[in-house]
Specification:
Strand 7 and strand 8 form a beta hairpin. By secondary structure, this protein is mostly beta strands. It is elongated and about 60 Å long.
Length: 191
């Protein structure tokens, strides 16, 4: 059973075969749980400096709440469902994550702003060094809609940064109180 910080993701069936000639381990497996189903195939290099990392994930369905323990602290209360295809290539020191995820009833809270946003249906594209959020329609806690343009940038899955623009006629952008930030607090709904 695969568990991430006490959250059960699912049962694992995994096969690995040593390929001495290619100096890699060939992988094939799946994770199946109540809310998750994904298949992994690929290879893992035996030398750390090799660019032989090549793992493909085919996600039939995944519960996005498992990301709460994996994402940087500026996003929390992640929930919803997704499916898609992802690839992890490059080297172990410099992995590249590419692919796409189709979101369904996804939601999260932005830590600094303390605003909770939802995406009914949308797609994020995973490109080398970024998660592209362009084209997502966000909904705030009042049901107001906004269109997102931007990305979550990372340096080989480290040093995460958010670069996001939102366009709307009426949307909640800040929802803090004195306890959260005594220097800057209140609710901002703007166009």
């Amino acid at each position: 059973t695969l568990t991430i910080n006490k959250d059960t993701v699912g049962d694992i069936e995994f096969h690995a075969k040593l390929n001495n000639q290619a100096k890699r381990i060939d992988l094939n497996g799946n994770v199946i749980g109540k809310h998750n189903e994904l298949v992994l195939q690929g290879s893992y290099p035996l030398t750390a400096d090799s660019d032989g990392l090549n793992i493909n994930g085919y996600i039939e369905r995944v519960d996005l709440s498992i990301l709460n323990t994996l994402l940087p602290a500026f996003v929390y209360d992640v929930d919803g469902k997704a499916n898609g295809t992802v690839s992890l290539t490059g080297s172990i020191q410099k992995p590249n994550l590419t692919g796409y995820l189709k979101l369904r009833k996804a939601e999260a809270t932005v830590q600094y702003l303390h605003t909770h946003y939802m995406v009914e249906d949308g797609q994020v594209n995973l490109n080398a060094g970024e998660i592209d959020l362009t084209g997502l329609e966000l909904t705030d806690i009042y049901g107001n809609k906004a269109n997102a343009t931007g990305r979550i940038v990372h340096d080989y899955l480290r040093d995460w940064r958010l670069d996001l623009s939102v366009a709307s006629n009426n949307f909640q952008f800040v929802n803090t109180n004195f306890e959260l930030n005594p220097d800057y607090f209140g609710e901002v709904i703007a166009a």
